Amino acid sequence: MKKIIIPLVVVIIIAAAAFYFFKGGSSSVNAPTDVPTNTTPATPVVVEDKTKTVIGKSVDGREIVAYHYGNVEGADTSASTMATSSTSSDADNVDLLFVGGIHGGYEWNTSLVAYELMSYLEKTPGIIPQNVRVTVIPVLNPDGLNEVLAVPFVPSTTGFKAADVSSSQEKQIAGRFNANEVDLNRNFDCDWQTEGKWQNKTVSGGSAAFSESESLAIKNYVEANEPDAVVVWYSAVGGVFASSCHNGVSTETRTLTNTFAKSSGYKAYESFNFYEITGDMVNWLAKKEIPAISVLLTNHTDTEWTKNKAGIEAVLKHYSK
């Protein structure tokens, strides 16, 4: 009897161990496909290297790219870090953000001036103080810009040529909006409304604040990186406009406004009050207590690089330590 029982017990033990291994011990490797194994949301910022970040994609799938210059080696640009804190590991470092092309093909010269800044920084890197990191997003609305170009827009450091821009007013007006026909500068969370104003026209502000992939992309980037100051180009009035969201113009925003205006020769304004603006990007930045200014070029074709170069250099000097 013992000769029978002992082998039987051994077989039972082996069978139990095998059952545990395949059903229990391996469950973490072969989890059921309908049960999530990681509930942490993926970071919206995709980091390629220390000099370029794809911050998101447009409605039609075009990449929105941020280019980095200056103190990039001192920045921690890992995806996990960018999702939770500033890229700069040193509190003394300054992160400046310049943005063009929020109105795509209607204000294509705002993208060109951003590309001129990129070219200038590549050719004269010594102009950037050691404690400063400059980020340039030249085209926030690539679908709108693509509307007016003779060749498809592809993100690059060289940008596009003014000669490739259509002179059709109909195309340029259509290019102001994204592929959902939303005015991106009416889609941010300061006085947001489903309908906004553009001069005497009614435009779409989207179904909700940050409903559009482009505005959401820069929201995620700003919240992950917490820039110390932001300059956004628009056209066409000719002036530097401070930002606020019912909390008054901050001291640093006023200093930033006057610094750029004095050196560039543009007139400084406390606010944009030519007509009511809702869902504006720079006012949302002010709501987040980030100093931000709108630099409005004088017309829709010139970059006025000499004026803007002087303003940029003054801002870099202001933040140097």
Q: Beta fraction of the residues?
A: 15-25%
What is the CATH-assigned architecture of the largest domain? Answer: 3-Layer(aba) Sandwich
Basic shape: globular
Poorly predicted regions are 1-44, 74-89
Number of strands: 11
Strands ordered across the widest β-sheet: 1-2-3-5-4-8-11-9-10
Measure the end-to-end span.
90 Å
How many H/I helices? 9
Percent in helix: 25-40%
Question: What is the highest CATH level, the class of the largest domain?
Answer: Alpha Beta
Number of domains: 2
Radius of gyration: 25 Å
CATH homologous superfamily designation of the largest domain:
Zn peptidases
Mean pLDDT over the full residue set = 85
Describe the protein's architecture and organization.
The chain has two domains: 1-39; 46-318, Zn peptidases (Aminopeptidase). 32% of the residues lie in helices and 17% in strands. It is built from nine helices and eleven strands. α7 (251-264) links the parallel β9 (239-242) and β10 (268-269). α7 (251-264) crosses α9 (305-318). It is globular, with a radius of gyration of 25 Å. The termini are far apart. The model is unreliable at 1-44 and 74-89 (pLDDT under 50).
